[in-house]
Specification:
The complex is a heterodimer of chains A (about 375) and B (about 60). In chain A, helix 1 runs parallel beside helix 7. Chain A is globular and about 60 Å long. Helices cover about 25% and strands about 30% of the residues of chain A. In chain A, strand 13 (about 205-210) and strand 14 form a beta hairpin. The longest helix of chain A is centred in the last third of the chain and has 17 residues, at about 365-380. By secondary structure, chain A is an alpha/beta fold. In chain B, a hairpin with a 5-residue loop joins strand 2 (about 25) and strand 3 (about 30-35). In chain B, the strands form two sheets. Chain B has a two-stranded antiparallel ribbon with strand order 1-4. Chain B has a two-stranded antiparallel sheet with strand order 2-3. Chain B starts with a strand and ends with a strand. By secondary structure, chain B is of the alpha+beta class. Chain B has one helix at about 45-50; strands at about 1-5, 25, 30-35, 60. The chains are: A alpha/beta (about 375), B alpha+beta (about 60).
């Protein structure tokens, strides 16, 4: 087993490559990435970097230069030949492998046919959007998920006029109606023109047209409708993708079809003990970091020694002065009930239909949330 | 070795607390407290804590 190839050069890919070396692999290690940039941290793209408080250089991960790897950046993977054990690149290159880690992440979902509107996924996107967010600029956002809400908050801080539209009845769907309602109130208090339960008919560079014909004129239009897994390049490889493009893996992040192919981060669809072994796909920072470390290790150890990923997902969102943190699977819960509230602090527990704890959400309550993380980690292991 | 945390970056995610609970702790006010001087034997755990920080706020010196 001489050659390990990691496809994807963001957080999951970087951590995978680091874990490959940390686990003692002395053969070749190639990291392929579609962007020209070395791996950088994405959470600041909707917050500190967008606001101008952080630069691109501030967001580059440390340790990239110290890693003994060959980097093939600016070269997207376009095909996988499992019989020939090679990855085909857009620049015509072919990279042979013995073990492959797929960590190609997601790209931003776009609005079909809309030209001149922006999405936010890469540092180049963030720099361009930041330039457009001048005081007084009118920003219209389609989609009140994590990216839409965070950009709305950042843009209000920059003095922009913000209209935020979503067809859902509340922002941040996984948080449920009650906490989502708190989030809606937060945006309205800060002067966002929030249009909920509002469908969008058309999107163009000069604004959006709501169902019913009302027009929202804007200087900048951001489409923030979530991510699409970058797995099209695996078509024809014989690897099983789920209905939403996730690469089907077992608990050890190994492809269900091929023991020499593993996945990490946004693209991995794997069974999670905390939800009874249901297959999940998680697009959060911490999961990408954990997956990378585990998939990199699993790729080079004896296959019999591969470990499973059991940690409960953790995610957060910073909006204005409110820190929203969640653990587990609140979006899949049967009930999500507030168990404690004290001024700006709030704690909610998520239970499944059998009354089992499957998640928790905190507003400005970091230490308490950490306690839930410990508890859910133990329950996932026990399940 | 010395452990630095940039408190302008720290957002109290508490990620560092899991790999190195003997070094990092969230106070009752959710503000991070940590040991600045840490024994060499804990380097791997502190590096794991630095890698786990989504804000890249933790730096090891020495």
């Amino acid at each position: 087993m001489d050659r390990v190839v990691v496809v994807g050069a963001s957080l999951a890919g970087l951590r995978a490559a680091q874990a490959v070396r940390a686990s003692g692999h002395e053969g070749s290690l190639v990291v392929v990435g579609d962007e020209e940039h070395p791996p950088y941290n994405r959470p600041p793209l909707s917050k500190g970097l967008l606001a101008g408080a952080q630069s691109h250089a501030d967001c580059v991960f440390p340790g990239v230069d110290a890693l003994d790897a060959e980097w093939r950046l600016g070269a997207a993977a376009v095909g996988l030949d499992r019989d020939g054990r090679t990855v085909a690149l857009a620049d015509g290159g072919r990279v042979p492998y013995d073990r492959l880690v797929v960590a190609t992440g997601c790209r931003a979902r776009t609005w079909p046919g809309a030209e001149g509107v922006v999405t936010l996924r890469t540092v180049d996107d963030a720099v361009a959007l930041g330039r457009a967010l001048q005081p007084g600029a009118r920003l219209a956002i389609v989609g009140a998920g994590f990216v839409g809400c965070e950009v709305a908050a950042t843009a209000r801080g920059l003095g922009c006029d913000v209209t935020l539209v979503d067809v859902a009845p509340h922002p941040l769907l996984p948080l449920g109606p009650e906490l989502g309602g708190r989030c809606a109130a937060l945006h309205r208090e800060h002067g966002v023109d929030l249009r909920l339960s509002t469908a969008v008919d058309a999107v163009d560079r000069a604004g959006i047209t709501l169902a019913g014909g009302e027009r929202v004129d804007a200087d900048v239009v951001l489409v923030a409708l979530g991510g699409v897994p970058n797995t099209e390049w695996l078509a024809g490889s014989g690897l099983t993708l789920d209905a939403r493009g996730g690469l089907r893996c077992d608990g050890t992040l190994t492809s269900v079809d091929d023991p020499d192919v593993l996945a990490a981060g946004d693209v991995a669809a794997w069974p999670h003990a905390l939800v009874g072994g249901e297959v999940v796909r998680v697009e959060h920072w911490t999961t990408a970091a954990e997956h990378g470390g585990l998939a990199g290790r699993n790729a080079v150890v004896d296959p019999a020694d591969r470990a499973a990923h059991v940690a409960p997902p953790y995610f957060w969102s910073d909006q204005y002065a409110t820190k929203i943190q969640a653990v587990g699977f609140p979006g899949r819960a049967a009930t999500l009930a507030i168990v404690e509230e004290d001024g700006p602090r709030l704690l909610a527990e998520a239970h499944d239909a059998d009354g089992r704890l499957v998640g928790a959400v905190a507003f400005n309550h970091a230490k308490r949330l950490a306690a839930y993380r410990r508890r859910l980690a133990t329950e996932a292991v026990a399940a | 070795m010395k452990v630095h945390v940039d408190m302008n970056l720290c957002q109290s995610h508490g990620e560092c607390v899991f790999p190195a609970p003997d070094v990092f702790e969230l106070g009752d006010d959710d503000v991070l407290v940590w040991k600045e001087e840490v024994d060499e034997s804990r380097r791997e755990a502190v590096q794991a804590a630095a890698d786990a920080c989504p804000m890249m706020a933790i730096r090891i010196e020495g």
